[in-house]
């Protein structure tokens, strides 16, 4: 079955530091890949997505590139802010068949940014 | 605000009881998904409905059931509750089914936090 593995957290950074959260996946074919963010006490928000190999998703300064050869979708940001403190989830939707639209999530990475 | 609403926000109940969680999708969205978020299992897909019909099932217990009504709102029913059912339950909606390799964005509600005592 499909699976997503994220780097274990928590990740603690100082403001303006560079962020990388690693994500690798196992799936057949070409899944669609997503990063969701969950701020304290809130639901999940879609941060960015990529639907085919070599696509780069980007939003709010965050970027991730769909790498088929390494089955990865690492999240990066050049300069984090305190307001980026949240839990980040890597997720995929399998390609066709009985996957329909169900999201398979990684375990989440807690990011804390200090001033 | 995603446009997906869930009620109630918090629910505290005792073991053995039954509860109903309600979800209203974004206007125009036909698909509704239910997910469970717990500390030990993480975020897991439970079940999906599309335009009133069940489309996919995930790790949903037999004690749990769901339905989607003609007005497209959905309810998740949890019965014979156990301590381990304590979790955050999310509903998400999207405009359509996944088709041909493309994927429609899912918009999540704020969740219902269920505490079983």
Order of helices and strands of chain B: EEEEEEEEEEE
Helix count of chain B equals 0
Shape call of chain A? globular
The fraction of residues assigned to DSSP E strands of chain B is: over 45%
Strand content of chain A: over 45%
Number of strands of chain B: 11
Total strand segments of chain A: 12
The biggest beta sheet of chain A is recorded as:
6 strands, mixed
- Low-pLDDT residue spans of chain B: none
Query: Largest interface here, residues on each chain?
Result: A-B, 26 and 30 residues
Question: Which secondary-structure class do the elements of chain B indicate?
Answer: mainly beta
Q: Helix content range of the residues of chain A, please?
A: under 10%
Main pleated sheet of chain B: 7 strands, mixed
Q: Cα distance, first to last residue of chain A?
A: 41 Å
Radius of gyration of chain A: 14 Å
Helical amount of chain B: under 10%
Oligomer: heterodimer
Poorly predicted regions of chain A: none
Class per helix and strand makeup of chain A: mainly beta
Your description of this structure?
The complex is a heterodimer of chains A (115) and B (117). Chain A is mainly β and 115 residues long. Chain A has no helices and twelve strands. In chain A, strand 7 (56-59) and strand 8 form a beta hairpin. Chain B is built from no helices and eleven strands. In chain B, strands 2, 4, 5, 6, 9, 10 and 11 form a seven-stranded mixed beta sheet that branches. By secondary structure, chain B is an all-beta fold. Chain A binds chain B through residues 29-30, 32, 36, 42-46, 49, 51, 89, 93, 95-96, 98-108, and chain B through 2, 4, 31, 33, 35, 42-45, 48, 55-56, 58, 90, 92, 94, 97-98, 100-111.
């Amino acid at each position: 079955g499909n699976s997503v593995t994220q780097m274990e957290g928590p990740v603690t950074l100082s403001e303006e530091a560079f962020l990388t959260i690693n994500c690798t996946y196992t799936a057949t074919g070409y899944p669609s890949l997503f990063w969701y963010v969950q701020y304290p006490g809130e639901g999940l928000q879609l941060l960015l997505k990529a639907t085919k190999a070599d696509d780069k998703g980007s939003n709010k300064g965050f970027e991730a590139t769909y790498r088929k050869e390494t089955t990865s979708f690492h999240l990066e940001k050049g300069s984090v802010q305190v307001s980026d403190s949240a839990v980040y989830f890597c997720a995929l939707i399998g390609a066709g068949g009985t996957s329909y639209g169900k999201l398979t999530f990684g375990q989440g990475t807690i990011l804390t940014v200090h001033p | 605000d995603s446009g997906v609403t869930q009620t109630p926000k918090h629910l505290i109940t005792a073991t053995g009881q039954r509860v109903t969680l309600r979800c209203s999708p974004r206007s125009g969205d036909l698909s509704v998904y239910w997910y469970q978020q717990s500390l030990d299992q993480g975020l897991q897909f439970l079940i999906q409905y599309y335009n009133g019909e069940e489309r996919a099932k995930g790790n949903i217990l037999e004690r749990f059931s769901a339905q989607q009504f003609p007005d497209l709102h959905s309810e998740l029913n949890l019965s014979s509750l156990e301590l381990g059912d304590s979790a955050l339950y999310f509903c998400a909606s999207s405009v359509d089914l996944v088709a041909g390799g493309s994927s429609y964005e899912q918009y999540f509600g704020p969740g219902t936090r269920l505490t079983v005592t």
